[in-house]
Amino acid sequence: MRAQNLLLVTLREPPAEAEILSHQWLVRGGFIRRVASGIYAYMPLMWRVLRKVEAIIREEMDATGALELRLPALQPAELWRRSGRWDTYTDGEGIMFNLTDRQGRQLGLGPTHEEVITSLAAELIRSYRQLPVSLYQLQTKFRDEIRPRFGLMRGREFIMKDAYSFHADEEDLRRYYDCMDQAYRRIFARCGLKVLAVQADSGAIGGAASQEFMAIADAGEDLVLSSRDGRYAANQERAQSLPPPSAPLKVTADECFATPGQATIEAVCAAHHLDPTQTVKVLLHRACFADGPDQPVLTVLRGDQEVNTVKLTNTLGHLLAERGTVLALERLEVDTLQDHGAQLPVGFLGPDLSDDAIQGVPGFVGGFLRIVDSTAADLAGFVCGANVPDRHRRVPGWSALKLSFTRADVRSAQPGDRCCHDPKAVLTATRGIEVGHIFQLGRKYSSALAACFNSESGATEPMWMGCYGIGVSRLAQAAVEQNHDDNGMIWPVSIAPFEVVVTVANGEEQEQCRLAEQLYGELRAAGVDVLLDDRMERAGVKFKDADLLGIPWRVVVGRNAARGHVELKTRSAKDVLDMDASQLLPHLIPQLQRQRRGGWPETGV
Ligand code: ATP
Ligand code: MG
Known about the structure:
Elements: H1 21-28, E1 32-36, E2 39-42, H2 44-63, E3 67-68, E4 74-76, H3 77-82, H4 86-90, E5 98-100, E6 106-109, H5 114-124, E7 133-142, E8 157-167, H6 170-190, E9 195-199, E10 210-216, E11 222-227, E12 233-235, E13 255-258, H7 265-272, E14 280-289, E15 292-302, H8 309-319, E16 326-331, H9 334-339, E17 369-373, H10 374-377, E18 382-385, E19 391-395, E20 406-408, E21 427-442, H11 444-448, E22 452-454, E23 460-462, E24 464-471, H12 472-482, E25 484-485, E26 488-489, E27 500-504, H13 510-525, E28 530-533, H14 539-549, E29 553-557, E30 565-570, E31 576-580, H15 581-595
Parallel strand pairs: 3-7, 15-17, 17-20, 27-28, 27-29
Antiparallel strand pairs: 1-2, 4-6, 5-6, 7-8, 8-24, 9-10, 10-21, 11-12, 11-21, 13-19, 14-15, 14-16, 18-19, 21-24, 22-23, 25-26, 29-30, 30-31
Helix pairs in contact: 1-12, 2-6, 2-12
The structure holds adenosine-5'-triphosphate and magnesium ion.
């Protein structure tokens, strides 16, 4: 390819909307163009990258025995109703774009494909002899994200590889899940990404075990907690840890005391020489369900702890399973409550806040569901709000409150906490970009969509399922987020838009042009992905563009062309090798062959 024909439009300044560096570099290098919020055109350079990422994914998926297919993006509502996800995915903050066709039938644009694939499996698979089966596709997904941002990282239209596997029993599902885990590790390593596999929340998809693959980057939206011994890593949404021990507090009598204006844990602790671990705090939420009334929730945590809304949502989903999926969990705003006549002594709430406090608030039926986090439940005596303004209460134990609470783990593990597997190990925090996610779905979708088979013993059973996603477009941008410098991108050879750029320093010098053309031809003949920059631009402009585009190897045909010499350098290292042009291919090709399996030119040439 010649740079002349590349429609190369590079920008000097980062675009205003690009908050993170990878987004800036991709736009400045002309790899992507924004069409609308969260919707991007992949320009030819980006498309080359994406095709290489896809090729790596295909090779590794095929190696697991998975079969490629392509499912429709447009999907009938009926299928999603059968799995019970239509309302969850379209109502409220639902992310599924949906529409009604000319016959008045409802359709959605696929954010994911469990429903479609499971219904096909139900039609096609009859016997255990056809199992296991694994099917995958590389396809556009649509999600009406609440906050599309960071370019391809969180798009509303993006490319995903999704795979679904079907098994006769759980053991076989586990075997294949491990096999996919290994395939994922190879894919990310081959794409040049530094990735950490972490335990994950299964979210709205549901199911048992799930693991995310996090590309380590400060710009990542996820927080990963891990132990240095490498034995534990989890998304904070799901992480567990040992909380710091609480300072003992002896409470002999149940009594109230004055705390004028002391509406925060800090203020109460400072005024009364208490430690936050000797107090409890109360949070109020409204949980909205797919098939039932809203539920007021009162959550109690130890004063030094933070609530984990993902854990709380999961807990509510289990406790009130008959109301279907939790659509939303909102903090109850005191203003709203007071507008409805609720009497709330904010800053002085206690775990035994009366249900009367929320009478008259629309949408609620009945009183609070009271949940107490284990950190608070384990306290013998504690201090809490007295449900009266400017007063707190010393409580000698939970029985003194004469109410029943459901005990659950709803706290957020924090960096610095001790690990459950080894109390001497401590959790540290790292930010990550979720580039992949694998799930053991179990039989949730196969049961809902009647995807059953005849087992060896003759019984009819729902199939065991796994599903496995990779954010292809997100992964490509994550590679830039991990690999750039002040001058632009630094692509790993395996997914670079071009492996080598041959730059003619001075396009008016006949000898330089001739030698560059010759090398360009030889490199192409040797199967190298090479770009020839023969534009009539100043050398400085071409070098700057080459840095910006991040092509891993650069051959400069300059002044020394007259004596048959060229310069070879890598994108990331400063040193330059001056060599006879005839040596270029024998020197370069073996290195490229190695690096195509993953990685960069070693520093230096
Ligand atoms: P997130 O938590 O980031 O919203 P998710 O958990 O909803 O992602 P999955 O349903 O697990 O995403 O989808 C599989 C993969 O698709 C993710 O691991 C991620 O790499 C990618 N992905 C998900 N949403 C987007 C998006 N809006 N833009 C680009 N890639 C995405
Ligand atoms: Mg996920």
